[in-house]
Protein 1
Amino acid sequence: MTVRSGFRLQLLLGGAALAISATPAFAQTAPTADATAPAATAAPEDQGLGDIVVTATKRETNLQKTPISISVLNTQGLTDRHVLSLFNLADGTIPSLRVATFEARQSALTIGIRGIVPYDQNQTARDGGVGVYIDGVALGKTQGLNAALFDIERIEVLKGPQGTLFGRNTEGGALSLVSKAPTGVFDGRITGGVGNYGSHNVDAHLDLPSFYNIALKFDGVYQHQDPTVKDPLTGSTGWNYYDRKGGRAAARWQPVDGFTADFAYDYAKDENTPQYSQLINYNPNNYAVGTYNAAGALTLNGVACGGTIAAGSTKPVCVAPRGPLVGVHPGRQTVADVGVPQQPSVDITHGFSANLKYKLAPWMELRSITAWRGVSTDQWDNSGGPERSSFAPFVPNTANPTAINTTGTFSRYSLSFLRQHQFSQEFQAVGSIPEFDYVVGAYYYTEHATEYAATPLSNQWNSDGTAYTIRSPIPGNSSAITGANSGYQQYDPSCNNTLGATVAQFANSCQFITRASQAADHNYSVFGNLTYTPEFLGNVLHITAGGRWTKDDRHGTLYVVNNRSDLVTAGTVSPFSFKNSISRFDPMFNIAFDASRDVHFYAKYSTGFRAGGANDRSLQFNAFGPEAVKSYEIGAKMDFWNHRARLNIANYIMDRSNTQFDFDYFDTNGTSPTNGTHIEQTTNAGSSKIRGVEVDLTVKPIPELTLTGSYAYTYWRAPSAVNPLTPGAPAQQLYIVYTPKNAASGAIDYVVPINVGDASVRLHLDGNYSSSQYSFQLEPTKTDASFVMNGRLALADIAVNDHNKVTVSVWARNLLDTTYIYRRSAANSSPVVNYNPNGTVASTSYGGILGDYANFNAPRTWGLELSAKF
């Protein structure tokens, strides 16, 4: 793909022309409050659309007058779509927001906005490119992001770099979750529901009357779903299972006028299993398929073949036959062909925050946000079975016929045990003086993360692939098969003392750990925004300048690498280590113009960056530097038709430098000593270009009906680079994952009062479309295009007595039971070519060829719910 000269200017001018041509010249009316707005007073519905309040600029502002691109999903929107966790937004509810699981597991989510979508930040020293915040507190790790949502007032999606007010790792934008605060007025709500796949959910919320200027609020959540794909192995849990529970306690103290102190503590536990990876084709390139002779050798027409073929070799080329128990399933499976050990991963998140606000003077409010948070993840991910490795039966050991060989092992059990703790402190001063609005602040963040991991192969074929056994994961067990990465045992705490563990401790307690690492991070920053609104121009022009200075220091060690004994020297463990530091300034300039009370234009320039780090899946904890993005954006926000219609348009250009790309190699050769090992290395590979247009339209033609539609067009171009794990290989094209060129969503909301108190019938339908996209940075293979509908029908607010109301509803996600592939890999469909340093082909390995594997979206789920207010 190429970008013609002047494309940037054409896109910006074209977007401006579109915005101006769409600008209506309707009579002005006073702004009204939206019944669904979180911080507004409800207005009569016949007045049309009202204000939506957001806090993207660290102050409460009208969405339409906030000169950046923002999408908001409020409480009613979350309820109508039956959004229980962030992963439910993966269907494309907000087109420019992309949510996916990391690999197949539900224990960590990948969050992307506007094409800034990381591939693998699921590590101790890695970060994402989109910041996730809960009540103003940044969450440092993606593990635990799929926990149950508590009582959320709204989700704000801030698009484009937010490096000035939100800081590092927000080069794509920020996802801000805002919880409902205590009201000081007695209120109680409880919801219970049941559905298919054994699902059931309960959430309860209690607001207590204030006493001594203290208001308390308590939230509790429980969510459960049985597997949607069954595991034939007795005692194992199937795939796409979850069991989530948690609670939150919040207190608001207002001892004097102008001072508010909000305190909150939350705890959540999420038990889950990964999505199922299934084989969707076999040998798609139609290589010759060999057979095994009596001696266990792979042959073609009686001649030995397969494996690794040296350049110039006369050996015939063939691939291993598909195992008799390994099925090919181009459609979604409900039962796996082969049973594997699978137990739920366990994610625990917890945190405490103190948010203080004091109105020092009419022109200044002082704020402090203090937070401690932590996450622990015990990951048990056995999503692949035999579908991600070729079939290879045992090869007889002629030297010792009674010995057990390790060929024929399969099903990579990805085990990871991560612990992370973080502390952050932010100070802000927010206020206004004549003609000026300002925000200034300082921020400190520190975290420490540790992880140890293993990748045992949990299953083993018999000699002809007609049966299999489960391998013991415990070293020393008589049935365990020794060898590299062949087993796993619980980690010995003595290994944490990387410079004090003795050789004997390392050998006896740590030898079956694939990798172990620890990393610490310290971030310091000061920031400010100043908006000038000159009175002599009629207060219609707003000029904003902002900036953030950041110093980021990160260091860590990797002290176990694939059982490498050469790390042990002189009685101690000698770790690989890294240290990097960066000091940078991110500016922002914004010019906004109020063409009328209902028509607003803006132009914005901003920068952001994603911190550097190190890849603990590499063999040396290789460090990489930060990546940075420059963004140019113009937009228009318009209300018309007497506030019955609203149109927002944003056009942007982003240039990303030093892009962090992950190069990997997964060894699927059954005869290799590192069979089942995933090796990965991160490199700053070059520059990426991203351009896009976003359009949001809301129409309320009659009081009972609201129509919404959103569209996002995203064009990107990524560089080519040489894979550092394959020396001598030519440069290969890189890809940006989970970024469809075209994505759209639409919804119909119809509310009919039934003249019985406040009761009404509410109907919600939404449809979400995404064109095909890439799911791996190194593969040209695309996923399917998708269209998913969700729906809810409710009889709402039925008065039981003077104080109590109930709501009865039926909901469905993936209403049409659409089936599509959202992650697809062809890595096991083609041979691996090994190159000499001079770039010539040294050999070609056909040992890992099997076929494409894929993850399908979830099937249709539906349920009934009963809610009560008291």
Note: Residues 7-21 form the longest helix (15 residues).
Protein 2
Amino acid sequence: MSALLVGFAAPLHAQERADAAVKEEEAQAGQIPVIIVTATKREQTLQETPVAVSVVGAEDIERAEIQDLNDLQTLVPSLAVRQGQTSGNTTFFIRGFGNGQNAIGLEPSVGVFIDGVYRSRSAAAISDLPNLERVEVLRGPQSTLFGKNASAGVISVTTRKPQFELGGAVEASIGNYDLRRFDAFVTGPLTEKLAASLSGNYNRRDGFFEDLGTGADYNQRDRWGVRGDILWKPSGDISFRLIADYDKIDELCCGATNLVEGATGANIRAIGGRVVSEDPFSYTVFYDVAPANKIENAGVSLQGDFNLGFAALTSITAFRSNTNESNFDADVTDLSLFGAVSQQSEIETFTQEIRLQSVGKGNLIEWTLGGYYFDERLNVGNQIINGADYRPYLDSLVGSPQVLLNLTNLITQSTGTAPPMLGGAGQGLTDNSRQDNTAWSIFGTVDLNITDRLTATFGISHTEDEKTVSLNAVSTEALSNQNLDQLGYAASLSQLLVGRGVNPTNPAQVGAFIQTNPQIYAQLQQQALAVARGPNNPFNALRALQPFPAFLGYPNAVEDGRSNDNSTDFTARLAYEVTDNLNVYASYATGFKATSWNLSRQSRPFPTDYTAGNPVFDRFTQRPVYSTPPSPITNAGLNLVNLLPGTRFAGPEDSEVYEFGLKASFSRLSFNVTVFDQTIKNFQTNVFTDNGFVLANAAEQSTFGVEFDFLWKPYAGLTLTGGATFLDPVYDSFPNFGNGIDVSGQQPQGIAKTQFSLGGNYGFTIGRLDAFVRADWQHIGDSPFVDNPAEQAVIDAAGYTRAQNLVNASLGVRTPGGIGVSLWARNLFNDQYLVFASPTVLQAGSFSGAPGQPRTFGATLRKSF
């Protein structure tokens, strides 16, 4: 997105010139301009729209140096954006609700729409933004009008249409970390009825993380994109808009570093590993694998608008594709514990929306009818492979190389075949999955204008969502595939036989003992079994070192890999215009998000389908001494060694919100107040385990909150803006968090109770030059990093915080000829905060995390025409 200056974008159409003149007169008079939004799928002023919506216009985005949706949170108090360990691993939160991070199958609860086209994954929405008109952030469930996956809110981006007058701009920016950014766009008429625009952007910046071992830098920017837009108006009642875009991200991102070094840190160092310990704000790491991301987005959409006289018909047809390749260093050291922790995904999405709306305003009834269709194909591959240092690290953890050597000998002795090297390099787990998702919805709203000041709104939508999923994985990790119950039994039985004077390595001698002492041998079997399945199994310490056992894929004889969900959602609202300057409204709305499948190695059968238990056989009698408990999977012959129950998917979530709002707008001051009580039942979330994420449903999560924002023009040239959000978030019920932990009553991780923003812009003239100076401050309060209380206690003890206090500033001038120069800085005072924290893979007691972006600054030169 072009980093434009205040008012530097030259109006490109006669009507725009007239509008700009009106706004300029209003600005000179210190008045607040009228803001048009489409939060209800029809154009209304922000003042008369009875929806909790924040609007950020092009000028504010340009002045604040907003580059992508990640930066947008500095201007919208109820919005939070968090980036994980890859560029595409970004999550949007509205009023504290949001998900989708770290699990590609977990669809977001905040829907992102660009020019009316749904972006189904965050990786498809994080590119530099195109030539913008406005961004609307709709808070609360929006399923009635926006359909799929809008149970927590919507981010709606609208770009400028092509103009019938020649215009454009060229821009170049430089900054610290060797920033080089170029943007250009041009628009104009091709014929009397055909206009087009073409834009392109290039964004390159070095990273602010340094790898002390290799000298490489991470958290860089390396992305570019092109976009073409054609507008055809064959008549005054018909128009078509065709948009095609392509963008690419190819960057080393994102750095994570050690936050807390547990006891395993000594093991890392003992075998020659290096780690930057507990110093995240040094922005230095030791890696052996560079965190790499390659993302490609492409799409084409066609919007047709038809004035039918009695109604307006809109059709939006779109096809989009997204490919994503990522790799990162899971152990955050320069040891090769893992040679690869990578993911590849390909997504193809087709969407169709048709909407028919009444025309005119002030009628007794205003209505909207529509339908939406969604068809997506998703292919995913994941790999996690042992590196050359994995086996030495295991030897260090168990205390001696002899432990795994002895285990190898016992396996050979018990089975007659030597296993592959336990923990050997190149072993690991590779999984592949496919998800086919089709969904459709029909929706309608009716506005009943009871009087010229009182309006009642009723909305209803029905959604059907069907997914067909397949997931298969191959584990070659030799240690993970060992039945330690079986081996513990064998070792214990051997000791018991030796105690009876029997040589366990002599089958003939053992056979004779069994034949002459059957009852005693049966007792020895039960004693050995009790040891094998109890706390005294000599190999119990190795269970934590078995992260990648054999995998049960699906569909199979028990699990069909299908989900079919449906929901009918409602909106009811009463809006009253108290005076020409003051509106109030009260509303109730519900929302819905369909089942999300776990498309990763941590997908496991539900407890209702499988009861865990490794079988144990006596190698001398060749008879079972313990059998896996009966369950549908075991009964179907699908049981695998070390298979555990878990979850395959997180079931559908349902949301509802009660909301009261007040909107006031005067000549120099406007403000909005919203009080709401929002609840999501079966909230879809992910829980981190030793080596991945498990999907789960929190039975109920709620937030009571108050939102306030204002815009004040105390005198001509000066504009002050601000906002605040106060939340009381809680897991009302989450008894099945995992490992027997009940987190009911807790504040959910990542949801701050307070969030503030305050900004000011002053425009003035210096001779013939237009000038401005701007600053904004954003505060996000502290919040838990993880939901596990014991893990959070460790992070708290280390003194880390998620609280942010970011100050951004810019100033610039523009000549009458359209040449502008600006200076800008983000995170001006270099505030230090953490974006996320989580346990480090296979390093018990250690935690990794990522610090926020440090101060960045630069200068921009722009020419508009």
Note: DSSP finds eleven helices and 41 strands in the chain.
